[in-house]
């Protein structure tokens, strides 16, 4: 399994960068986790847009879906040019029925719902199996976990306040992409987010092998997020940067 950070900012992208978007690749499967603002421009540094099989959306906030519409337009162009004959598959929750309805643009893009009620029921995209778990955020949002046939597991919190119900879901994963939207001492909970201390504790209690802090703030020094998380978590840790790559061993 290979994961490339395409965008990692919370709220809006800094100059020439993007908000939440991660390219997950395994064998011949190419999947996006979220598709935030600026993602489509950044993605083309790493992959042809026509080669993307599916997009998984954690929730409908703009910093996670802003470029999904234009990614769908690229598929319309690419299918008309004969670059691919495969529609873009979009996996999202349908707790917001109106937003979900707008995702499908048949025959170019087709949306599929995943449901909280089916938490324990993995579904498959290409060579990967996925499961979901609801997070603690002002709108319905789901953490995502991907299992590869090589045995490696990665998880992504999406957006969430610190919530111990996530720990069994995240337990022992090889890579956890966790949001870390604030610094230690700042109260992130009213915004449905976590600070660096909470991200560190989540990584520690979940016993994850690698903790990647992402959904980063537009203030302070990101290195400080690492220093603060490391007081509570002693495994491997980084903060996200555009183009950063993680691969399973
Ligand atoms: Zn967000
Ligand atoms: Zn959000």
Structural class: alpha/beta
Name the CATH superfamily classification.
Ribonuclease Z/Hydroxyacylglutathione hydrolase-like
Give the percentage of residues in beta strands: 25-35%
Major pleated sheet: 7 strands, mixed
CATH class descriptor name: Alpha Beta
Q: In which range does the helix fraction lie? A: 10-25%
Compute the number of structural domains. Answer: 1
Stretches where pLDDT falls below 50 for ≥5 residues?
Answer: none
Please trace the helix and strand order, writing H or E for each element: EEEHEHHEHEEEEEHEHEHEE
Q: Calculate the terminal CA-CA distance, rounded to whole Å.
A: 9 Å
Spatial order of the strands in the main sheet? Answer: 6-5-4-3-2-1-14
Number of helices: 7
Task: Supply Rg.
Answer: 17 Å
Mean pLDDT: 96
Q: What hetero molecules are bound to the protein chains?
A: zinc ion
How many β-strand runs?
14
CATH architectural group: 4-Layer Sandwich
What does this structure look like?
This protein is of the alpha/beta class and 249 residues long. It has one domain (2-247): 4-Layer Sandwich (Metallo-beta-lactamase, Chain A), CATH 3.60.15.10. It contains 7 helices and 14 strands. The chain is globular and about 55 Å long. The site of one zinc ion has 7 residues, from helix 2.
